[in-house]
Amino acid sequence: MKLISSRPLLFAVLIAGFAAAAPAKAADYVIDTAKSHASVNFRIKHLGFSWLTGRFNDFSGTFSFDDAHPEASKVKVEVNTDSIDSNHAERDKHLRSKEFLDTATFPKAIFESTAVKVNGDKATIAGNFTLHGVTKPIEIVAERIGGGADPWGGFRQGFTGTTRLPLKDYGIKFDLGPASQEVELTLNIEGVRQ
Amino acid sequence: MLIRDTKAGYGLFTRLTHWIMALAIVAMFALGLWMVTLNYYSPYYRTAPDIHRSVGMLLLFLLALRFAWRLANPKPDDAELSPFERAAAQIVHWGFYPLLFALMVSGYLISTADGRPIEVFDWFSVPSLIQKKGLEESAGEVHEVLAWVTIVLVAVHAAASLKHHFIDHSSILKRMWSGPPSTS
User: Fold this and answer.
1) pTM of the prediction?
2) One digit per residue, pLDDT tens: chain A, 194 residues?
3) CA distance A57 to A41
4) Which residue of chain A comes nearest to B133, CA vs CA?
5) Using an 8 Å Cβ cutoff, are B8 and B180 in contact?
6) Chain B interface test: which of A93, A97, A99, A175 (most B C-beta within 10 Å)
7) ipTM exceeding 0.90, yes/no
8) Do A89 and B140 touch (CB under 8 A)?
9) Nearest CA in chain B to A175
């Protein structure tokens, strides 16, 4: 009698114990560009007087993320360079030309992470960034914004990350002036768990 | 001084607009090639494209006016030309209108692709009529190709007129300069 009544309890404890002991698996996420909960933004100083901002409208990417082991995370983002949008058609045309991105020759910019270092609530994502046909190791300072179940039955994680790119490092030689040697790139990415 | 064209020669309007447009089109070609090489700190980085856009819009207006004028006026006699020369001249003369129209409209489409108007020298602005993502790219390619086609056609046209003037000793170049002989 006693034995029988304790069986369901034992069973429940066993299952709970097994679930807890199993290593939490890193989940794969696809960046939600379909509904545009992600953006690739840039800003560069104009003459040293103001920030000129713009973005790349067309990109895609994936990442893997494990709450328990964030340093095992991986991320890859591909940007179609001709989707540059600085809210001025003539300027965008210039930015796509050979004097800047040369998007006809180099249609993709790619970031692929190689290592993630976590310090507190921030992380440094090291990786290779390819732009204008030049691949360089860079570091993105990233921060998790939040994550969890969404209201529609899915599961999401969101991050933001920023890096600075000296234009000359990537062979972009058009001189915009001493205050405009670097462009700041910010990625806001929300991924949907697959 | 005769304003209208006659069978005997070109009137003042045709001759004046011919030389204004000839000068402006060659200058615009040079200006266009030059302005895209300017560095960001050049004092002309902004003014050169401003002038290019403004002159382009004025030329478009002048082209429409000239085309209407051509249709409304008789064409001076081409009897001295050979059949081949007459056919070639016809193709070049009538070809210039659609070519220049497409050239100027493609330029207009680059600058107005995002809805911005073209400011013509602070005098007035031409509003954007067609907005489309990436239109500035396709319009830009068309503009560049047509600019080269135009300048080649200008060279052919100029060479032909010089040939008639210096080799054939015809009055074809002179009549675009000095108009029909006075009949009175």
Assistant:
1) 0.86
2) 444 455 555 555 445 544 444 445 789 999 999 999 999 999 999 999 999 999 999 999 999 999 889 999 999 999 999 999 999 999 999 999 999 999 999 999 999 999 999 988 899 999 999 999 999 999 999 999 999 999 999 999 999 999 999 999 999 999 999 999 999 999 999 999 99
3) 9
4) A89
5) yes
6) A93
7) no
8) no
9) B40
